[in-house]
Amino acid sequence: MIDTPFQRPRAGFAAALTCLLIVAGCASTAEKPEPEPSATMASKPAPAPAPKPAAVTPDVVRPSHPVRYIVRRGDTLWDIAAKFLRDPWVWPEIWSVNPQIENPHLIYPGDVITLAYVGGKPRLQVRRPGAPGEARPTGENVERLEPKVRERPLEEAIPSIPADAIQQFLTRPRVVSLDELHSAPYILGNYEGRLISAAGNDVFARGFPGGRPDASSYSIFRPGDPLVDPDTGETLGYEAIHVGKAAVRAYGPPSRLEITDSEREILKGDRLLPADREPVHARYVPTVPDQKVDGQIIKLFDAISQVATDQIVVINRGADDGMRTGTVLAIAQSGGTITDPYADNGPEEVQLPPQRVGTLMLFKVFDRLSYALIMDATHPVHLHDQVTNP
Hints:
This protein is mainly β. The protein is built from five helices and 23 strands. Among the domains are: 173-274; 294-388, Thrombin, subunit H. The N and C termini lie close together (11 Å).
């Protein structure tokens, strides 16, 4: 992995440690299992076979890794690993659990991360100030922790990836299928007959299954551009443009709802979907796919032509293709061509191999496409860049 200006500091690894906790059974504070995504297109259950662990190669350790790193607020597990490892996603494979530390599967601000070799193999270790047998590090930037504290809230643990970067994609519908689009309830209008409504206005809606709402609150969205698979030309879904929120006030028909929030004007014909209450925890275990992956980026969010680290994209591969939450993929761009003036038959154009420009992690997987967060990028990432095995 190459350090460039496009890489932004992030750090954290709760995901990896959570995975090891399940295997080792060493948790002192149990985590709730990660719920299935509930937004728009229902996510397909993950394939039965366990994901393939990332391969640990002899050169996995960065030559210039720090002697130790003190975890700070705002860090993420991915970038803490990037300080020590060439490939941050192999973190779960070389993590060493310290049995003297309560909740060793979670990392908190003030913990000290070090790298050691055990049996000739690299191991990342955590030392927690105040834990039995652990000395308190010194230094002006060290967060002081009280030795008497035995448990810390799960929410204080360092996340795997930046939670704020993906929050809106976990709590709002951003992609819908054609069937969902056609069957979603729609706004009929308001008392005054105005074309536009906003926060604080009451509106009437129809099209609910069974004739009445089956939830107390709804997200309001407007159909956007189709998401087309460049390989097949098939429409995989539609962008759902979030325009507001509404709460049910009276059951109809038609049902009466109050607009509780509006980011854009609310129009007749705008669609409704039950509000997604999936918790935002950003604790993902990085894994590599079992099978060969050859996909593309088909959507850039909040960008026109290019994106970089910590931005969101959609790829044309999903659970049907073996993808799962936490899957890590490489981003590659066409290498272009160069002219060979020395060819036997005169100047000849030579196609260069694709160039790797970054890494992404899937954080929400649907049947045929997935949301991904760009974890690092050495060049700007563009629409239709390739995604493949790291």
